[in-house]
Structure formats: structure tokens, C-alpha cells
């Protein structure tokens, strides 16, 4: 069985765009409206000469426990719990949000191995973008631009080292 990596984060941070960059597919729904990916979505990343792994895209965790958003969040949590590694995706343009802090607290409680992925750093100073999230205290943090495919190679190396 292939190892699995789950993409978790609040809506609109670029999880589905990262899914596409990793799986080189247009499978995941990318949309400006939050919450477009409501179910778990599976793809396979096959990096050249490296170990293949399953990528699990999830709907955003929007903070509400009721209704559709709640169901989506429960799916995301289930995906994270089943994954060998969680990529906690945040938005480098918007900086830290209260919802990020909530998700981080939950991920810490789940005890799953985790990498922090600071996305949307195209046109930004990636060191400054990472510094914004330093207070999360996640040792392994990567600045990427999923839409511009920047930083994906070094993220893949880190993932390989953790699987
Ligand atoms: P999700 O809700 O977390 O799955 O986010 P999406 O992948 O659907 O992306 C939400 C929005 O952010 C879309 O308009 C994307 O085009 C945009 N986006 C995603 N990744 C990047 C990135 O690396 N840079 C920029 N500038 N925009 C991005
Ligand atoms: Mg999505």
C-alpha cells in the first residue's frame, strides 16, 4: 500500500491547487468560492525516481460544527487521522488567522506527523512569509506557490524524507 499525505487547512488557502501541483492533474476542483471541495479527493504523486504516495485533498475546515461545513470538517479530520503525514496549508498573503490556530491545536492533539506549508508566496519574500508563521512552532515549514509551482521540489524532498 502506498503511504498517504493529507492536505488540511481552512478554505481557500490553495489546498486543491497544491493537490493539482503534486499530482499534476486538474482533478481537484479549484475555485474562488470557499468550500468547493466537500469530499475527500484522492490522487497519486509519482515524483521522478522517488517513492510514490497518495495525496488526499480535503474540504476546508471552516470552524462551524453544524451543517455542511461541519460535515466537511469531519471528513478533513478523518482524512488527517488516517494519513501518514499531514500538510497543514496556510495562506502566506493573509498571514495567521484564528481559524489556523484552531486547526493547528486540533492537529497537535491528533498527534499526526505534520509539515507546515505556507502557500501563495509568489511575489513575496518567502523568509518573511515563513517568519509570520514562526509562532506556530512547527519546525518543518516550507514556503511554496502552488499555482506557480515554486518550492514544490523541495517540499517533495521533505515529504520523501518523512514517509
Ligand atoms: P482550497 O479551498 O484550499 O482548496 O483553495 P483553492 O486551491 O481552491 O484556491 C483558492 C484560490 O487561491 C484560487 O483562486 C487559487 O487560484 C488561489 N491560489 C491557490 N494557490 C495559489 C498560489 O500559490 N498563489 C496565488 N497567488 N494564488 C493561489
Ligand atoms: Mg479545495
Can you tell me about this structure?
By secondary structure, this protein is an alpha/beta fold. The chain has one domain: Rossmann fold, CATH 3.40.50.300. The protein is 34% helix and 19% strand. It contains five helices and six strands, in the order βαββαβαβαβα. It is globular and about 40 Å long. The mean pLDDT is 86. Magnesium ion binds next to helix 1. GO terms for molecular function: GTP binding; ribosome binding.
CATH architecture level-2 label: 3-Layer(aba) Sandwich
Largest sheet: 6 strands, mixed
Individual helix count: 5
How many β-strand runs? 6
Ions, cofactors and other ligands present here are:
guanosine-5'-diphosphate, magnesium ion
Separation of termini? Answer: 13 Å
Count the domains: 1
**Taking strands numbered 1, 2, ... along the chain, how are they ordered across the largest sheet?**
2-3-1-4-5-6
- What is the third-level CATH name, the topology? Rossmann fold
In round numbers, the mean pLDDT is 86
Query: Helicity range of the residues?
Result: 25-40%
Order of helices and strands: EHEEHEHEHEH
Radius of gyration, in Å, reads 14 Å
Tell me the β content: 15-25%
Name the overall outline: globular
Highest CATH level, the class: Alpha Beta
Protein name: GTPase Der
Binding site for GTP 1: 9-16, 57-61, 119-122
Function: GTPase that plays an essential role in the late steps of ribosome biogenesis.
Organism: Luteimonas wenzhouensis
Amino acid at each position: 500500500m502506498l503511504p498517504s499525505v493529507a492536505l488540511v487547512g481552512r478554505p481557500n488557502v490553495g489546498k486543491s491547487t497544491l493537490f493539482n501541483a503534486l499530482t499534476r492533474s486538474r482533478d481537484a476542483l479549484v475555485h474562488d468560492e470557499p468550500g468547493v471541495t466537500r469530499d475527500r479527493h484522492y490522487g497519486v504523486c509519482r515524483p521522478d525516481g522517488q517513492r510514490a504516495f497518495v495525496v488526499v485533498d480535503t474540504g476546508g475546515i471552516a470552524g462551524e460544527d453544524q451543517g455542511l461545513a461541519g460535515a466537511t470538517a469531519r471528513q478533513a479530520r478523518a482524512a488527517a487521522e488516517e494519513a501518514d503525514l499531514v500538510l497543514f496549508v496556510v495562506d502566506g498573503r493573509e498571514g495567521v488567522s484564528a481559524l489556523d490556530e484552531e486547526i493547528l491545536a486540533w492537529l497537535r492533539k491528533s498527534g499526526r506527523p505534520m509539515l507546515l506549508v505556507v502557500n501563495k508566496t509568489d511575489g513575496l519574500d518567502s523568509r518573511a512569509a515563513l517568519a509570520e508563521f514562526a509562532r506556530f512552532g512547527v519546525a518543518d515549514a516550507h514556503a511554496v506557490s502552488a499555482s506557480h509551482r515554486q518550492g514544490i521540489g523541495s517540499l517533495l524532498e521533505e515529504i520523501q524524507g518523512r514517509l
